[in-house]
């Protein structure tokens, strides 16, 4: 809707960059706030956040190049791989690279991984919700054509979405379902049984809602079996299945240690 927020001479400020940055800062702020409440050493968490952000950017770019259907073009124009300001990011690539980098840092500094993940989970949902508004502004992650009354039509020539066609506002769908996930996590954290439960719930819920929104998307992102499944849906399965197994396994162990009293 508004790909370019401001242009001053040679300097162009893209709305998506601003909102993605706001989303990242929202997630970091939330984790920092929760850590402060718990009396944790926050400087290590800020260092951890910086490492995760850097590797998330790298991972989201790598996954976009590999799986969004543009690999051949990037191999023919390799310099464009480094042009991050032109877009081309995949959330799951950032999530997996960031998760791996975070685990490395946490193990190196002997931090409590499950506790940190609890502090981070709601902020992740909220931050991604904010970031998806950036996708809406740029036209990225656009939807399939629709005649529904809430369909949107992009008109800006700088938009990444097709112009002049009424589309599903999949970016807004993502924001709305992630705000619901955020609310569910706030409700859940008062009822959780063991450390890390909240993060596992986030992974399960995000994988499910992401797969749902993927049904309505129409941007290049890797589609297989004649459109039956996308790259993100495959990764969602890879994320959700072990997360669900861990969730149930840890819950089973908790129930053995703390059985409910019989009345």
Runs in which pLDDT lies below 50 for 5 or more consecutive residues are none
Helix content: 55-70%
Query: What structural class do the secondary elements suggest?
Result: mainly alpha
With strands numbered from the N-terminus, the spatial order across the biggest sheet is: 1-2
**Which term fits the overall shape?**
globular
Contiguous helical run count: 8
SSE sequence, one letter per element? EEHHHHHEEHHEEH
Distance between the termini: 59 Å
Cα-based radius of gyration, to the nearest Å: 20 Å
> What is the number of E strands?
6
Largest sheet composition: 2 strands, antiparallel
Summed over residues and divided by their number, the pLDDT gives a mean of 87
| Count of structural domains | 1
Q: What do you see in this structure?
A:
The termini are far apart. 62% of the residues lie in helices and 6% in strands. By secondary structure, it is mainly alpha-helical. Helix 1 runs antiparallel to helix 5 (113-138), helix 2 runs antiparallel to helix 4 (91-108) and helix 6 (170-188) packs antiparallel against helix 7 (197-214). The radius of gyration is 20 Å and the shape is globular. The chain has helices spanning 15-37, 42-67, 71-76, 91-108, 113-138, 170-188, 197-214, 231-257; strands at residues 4-8, 11-14, 152-153, 166-167, 223-224, 229-230. The protein has a two-stranded antiparallel sheet with strand order 1-2. The chain has one domain (4-253).
């Amino acid at each position: 809707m508004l790909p370019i927020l401001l242009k001053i001479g040679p300097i162009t400020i893209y709305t998506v960059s601003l909102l993605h940055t706001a989303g990242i800062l929202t997630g970091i702020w939330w984790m920092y706030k929760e850590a402060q409440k718990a009396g944790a050493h926050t400087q290590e968490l800020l260092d951890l956040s910086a490492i995760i952000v850097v590797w998330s950017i790298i991972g989201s770019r790598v996954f976009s190049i590999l799986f969004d259907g543009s690999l051949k073009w990037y191999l023919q124009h390799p310099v464009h791989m480094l042009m991050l300001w032109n877009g081309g990011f995949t959330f799951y690539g950032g999530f997996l690279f960031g998760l791996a980098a975070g685990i490395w840092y946490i193990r190196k500094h002997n931090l409590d991984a499950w506790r940190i993940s609890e502090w981070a989970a709601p902020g992740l949902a909220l931050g991604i919700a904010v970031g998806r508004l950036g996708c809406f502004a740029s036209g990225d992650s656009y939807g399939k054509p629709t005649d529904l009354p809430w369909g949107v039509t992009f008109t800006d020539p700088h938009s990444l979405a097709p112009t002049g066609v009424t589309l599903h506002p999949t970016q807004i769908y993502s924001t709305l379902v992630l705000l619901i996930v955020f609310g569910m996590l706030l409700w859940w954290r008062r009822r959780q049984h063991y450390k890390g439960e909240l993060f596992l719930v986030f992974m399960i819920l995000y994988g499910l809602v992401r797969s749902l929104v993927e049904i309505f998307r129409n941007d290049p992102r890797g589609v297989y079996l004649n459109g039956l499944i996308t790259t993100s849906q495959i990764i969602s399965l890879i994320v959700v299945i072990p997360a669900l197994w861990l969730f149930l396994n840890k819950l089973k162990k908790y129930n053995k240690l703390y059985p409910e009293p019989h009345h």
